[in-house]
Amino acid sequence: MAASATRRLYESFPFPSPGADRPLIDVVGNELPLVVEGGLRDGWSVLDAGCGTGHTLIGLARAYPHVHFVGLEPSDASRDIARHLAERHGTTNVEIVDGAIPDTVIERRFEFIYSYGVVHHLPDPQAGLNWLGDHLAEDGLLHVWLYNAIGEAQRMRDRELVRLMAAHADGHGLDVVRALGFSLSLDAYGMPGAWAGTALDQAEQDVFDADAYLNPVVHTLRFGDLPELLDGVTDWVAADRVYGPHGAPYLDLSGTGGFPAQGPELLRPEDLFDDPGLRTRIGDLGNLDRLRAVELVLRPTGFRALAGRGGSLNRCSRRIAGNLLTGPAGRAQVP
Ligand SMILES: C[S@@+](CC[C@H](N)C(=O)[O-])C[C@H]1O[C@@H](n2cnc3c(N)ncnc32)[C@H](O)[C@@H]1O
């Protein structure tokens, strides 16, 4: 029931954009080298689990022409747009596949799986994560973007009100979102006023509002939920980044640094406080508690984590190795 209602939502509102002529999301191609040393490697197979309209997928496929990409997506409308995008940009290293986690069988394993904004819409996130883990290669990496329970608390209440008032209405309910005066701003996700560097057009604003307020299934999570959810799924899990009205800093829980001076924003736990005593105290906490402090102070709306199997941690940046929440003993703190 919930799964088909979710599917209906994305048939009417393919995410992130119904426009195959709209710009690709190229930023992820620039971000991955901050996570995986050197970025995606030639010859890898990469899965975008829940690729939507493929604006990120095709952007990545262009950035990494020697990587083979598979986009899995249950919405027909979204897959059509993704295929148009691939044609329009002449990308030949992408397959768009009809299917849904955790029901679809893919007889392949992937060196890198990313799933952005999807697991929290599954009726059973644990089953979804198990499926993703089952599709990782021996040294595979899993990158997920999830809603954060702290920063999303108000929107969850707004969503509840929309769904209550729209329950017996005709149509999809966007009129109720408008009547209540709600409209999602990308500022809340650290992307001030812009998507792919371009302001949302009306059709995209409708998509983002439907995604935000009409979604039948939403689970919000915390970093602290991941060790249990990924127990037995991957061998380690690490924090990567938080997203919120304050921006979208990369986390550096162990102070490994390593970003160029003009590079993207890096957040160390002590940056949360001006008080010297608090700066010292947070240094005494373990990584999970440092993340609790980050969540409680910054109230992020979204967060990103990386997890992996086998020797995959060796492929990651020093920053990620210093951000471990669970994993190989002795690797949690990098000097
Ligand atoms: C918020 S959108 C994110 C799309 C894309 N990942 C992005 O970041 O632009 C969620 C996507 O997950 C897809 N989805 C929903 N249930 C799914 C499932 N069980 N398996 C795979 N994808 C699913 C939806 O159709 C939708 O395209």
Automatic annotation (TrEMBL):
Gene3D superfamilies assigned: Vaccinia Virus protein VP39
InterPro entries, per database record: Methyltransf_12 (IPR013217), SAM-binding_MTase (IPR053173), SAM-dependent_MTases_sf (IPR029063)
Domain of life, source organism: Bacteria
GO MF annotation list: methyltransferase activity
Keywords: Methyltransferase, Transferase
All residue ranges annotated as the Methyltransferase type domain in the record: 47-142
Transmembrane spans: none
GO biological process, one term: methylation
Protein name: Methyltransferase
Native organism: Streptomyces griseofuscus
